[in-house]
Write a structure and sequence with these properties.
The relative contact order is 0.10. The protein has a two-stranded antiparallel ribbon with strand order 1-2. The longest helix is centred in the middle third of the chain and has 20 residues. The protein is elongated and about 55 Å long. The chain contains five helices and two strands; from the N terminus they run ααααββα. The protein is mainly alpha-helical.
Length: 113
């Protein structure tokens, strides 16, 4: 939605192009950009905790992509963002890929609803 606010005409044009179907484009008339801006502002305000948690998960995944070496995760736990600590565990899957997985606590949706 951010890019739609900046350049609504490019979104309308891209969403009309069959080659770009399924892309990250929103077909919203230029005249309603203010409403889209208001919606985005309310999402950022009302769901700030959820958005912060989402960013923390992304940051944790990036930490794993750049730092997991196939060995013990103990040195990585202190580097995790604070939001998912105690809610996730670090593990290797059956293909030896590092991952964060839900640690069996109550659903995250209750914490960030």
């Amino acid at each position: 939605m951010n890019s739609n606010i900046i350049g609504p005409p490019s979104h309308v044009e891209a969403s009309a192009n069959p080659a770009l179907r399924g892309g990250y484009f929103i077909k919203i008339r230029e005249g309603v950009a203010g409403e889209v801006r208001d919606l985005l502002d309310s999402i950022n305000r009302d769901r700030a905790d959820m958005l912060r948690f989402t960013q923390a998960i992304d940051d944790g995944q990036e930490l794993l992509r750049t730092s997991a070496s196939g060995f013990d995760f103990t040195p990585l736990y202190p580097k995790l963002p604070a939001e998912p600590v105690g809610l996730v565990e670090l593990a290797y899957d059956t293909d030896n890929q590092a991952q964060m997985r839900h640690a069996g606590h109550p659903p995250l949706s209750r914490r960030y609803a």
